Amino acid sequence: MSVTVRVPAKVNVQLAVGAARPDGYHDLANVFLAVGLYDEVTVTESDELRVTCEGPDADQVPLDRTNLAARAAEALAARYGRTPDVHIHIAKDIPVAGGMAGGSADGAGALLACDALWGTGASRAELLEICAELGSDVPFSLIGGAALGTGRGEQLTVLDVGGTFHWVFALADRGLSTPAVFREFDRLVEGTDVPEPVASRDVLQALAKGDPDALAAAVSNDLQPAALSLFPTLADTLTAGRAAGALTALVSGSGPTTAFLARDPESAAKVAETLRTSGTCRTVRTASGPAPGATVTTGR
Ligand SMILES: C[C@@](CO)(OP(=O)(O)O)[C@H](O)COP(=O)(O)OP(=O)(O)OC[C@H]1O[C@@H](n2ccc(N)nc2=O)[C@H](O)[C@@H]1O
Ligand SMILES: Nc1ncnc2c1ncn2[C@@H]1O[C@H](COP(=O)(O)OP(=O)(O)O)[C@@H](O)[C@H]1O
């Protein structure tokens, strides 16, 4: 018996970051938008826990117990007093270490898939609690759509979205470590008064209206200076996308993926084509959002 779950990537249309907390995390106002780039996680009953992965970035994905999908299976099994003996196969299309929450997607996907395979009867609230233990971004991967994340990003408020937003993503030739980007943020703000992170009314209204021009004017990412400091050539990618007609350009989360908002699919295709030949990125993808959260597609 096996179960397959499809899980989306995300882009952060606002990422407001507060000062480092005593536990090392940062309070956030994190406005997530799920976009239609997906990983597929299949779990099959097996005699031991093992992970395999296929896809263009598969060689960068850990296959041991540090894999978030393996950790999700272990966490659910521990809670229900059983062994996590499943083969987890990840068909990976979300860039690895790209600021698009690929590992988080696999964690949420494996959790939902194991839950369905084992018939635990866990409530949505219980699954979200396990997600939050696995990582700050994991709860959002489960719910998808659009949401405001507060605390370290794990406390979610679902947001209304009044239309479809068309995005182009430029993938870089190497990843960036999320903790390293937060550390660089701390270094850059040292000695300054970091304001409490607050959700932007303009961002929320633009999402609710489905208005790409208004969203383009309102997006922000407090981690962008840190990502650019660690990966200066990303500035060239942002410039190339803006010159190609994107309404706005920003780093996705902790990067290094850069995100470009377009007015419609035709404009997105044009921006994508220009970026593809610009020599400023490894490859380019287009995707629209909001996309649904983790969804069981086949199984049992
Ligand atoms: C920055 C964001 C924006 O959505 O994602 P990415 O762009 O990397 O995908 C997230 O905050 C990443 O979430 P996630 O990748 O789940 O992070 P976690 O596993 O919880 O934490 C990894 C490390 O990131 C830092 N961290 C994470 C979240 C947070 N609110 N404050 C932090 O300082 C800490 O150094 C922590 O040890
Ligand atoms: N299932 C997984 N897929 C990808 N990376 C994973 C996974 N599980 C753990 N990781 C680790 O998490 C790191 C961050 O990867 P990822 O979640 O793709 O990026 P980001 O945090 O930038 O969104 C990777 O470098 C890898 O070591």
Automatic annotation (TrEMBL):
Any Gene Ontology biological process: isopentenyl diphosphate biosynthetic process, methylerythritol 4-phosphate pathway
Amino-acid positions noted as binding ATP in the UniProt annotation, renumbered to this chain: 95-105
Domain GHMP kinase N-terminal: 67-145
One Pfam entry name: GHMP_kinases_N
GO molecular function, one term: ATP binding
Substrates-to-products reaction catalysed: 4-CDP-2-C-methyl-D-erythritol + ATP = 4-CDP-2-C-methyl-D-erythritol 2-phosphate + ADP + H(+)
The EC number(s) this enzyme carries: 2.7.1.148
Sections of the chain in a coiled coil: none
Keywords annotated in UniProt: ATP-binding, Isoprene biosynthesis, Kinase, Nucleotide-binding, Transferase
All copies of domain GHMP kinase C-terminal, residue ranges: 204-277
Database matches in Gene3D superfamilies: 3.30.230.10, GHMP kinase, C-terminal domain
Active site per UniProt: 10, 137
Pathway participation: Isoprenoid biosynthesis; isopentenyl diphosphate biosynthesis via DXP pathway; isopentenyl diphosphate from 1-deoxy-D-xylulose 5-phosphate: step 3/6
Superkingdom to which the source organism belongs: Bacteria
Enzyme class: transferase
NCBIfam families the UniProt entry points to: ispE (TIGR00154), PRK03188.1 (NF002870)
Task of the protein: Catalyzes the phosphorylation of the position 2 hydroxy group of 4-diphosphocytidyl-2C-methyl-D-erythritol.
Family stated for the protein in its record: Belongs to the GHMP kinase family. IspE subfamily.
Record protein name field: 4-diphosphocytidyl-2-C-methyl-D-erythritol kinase
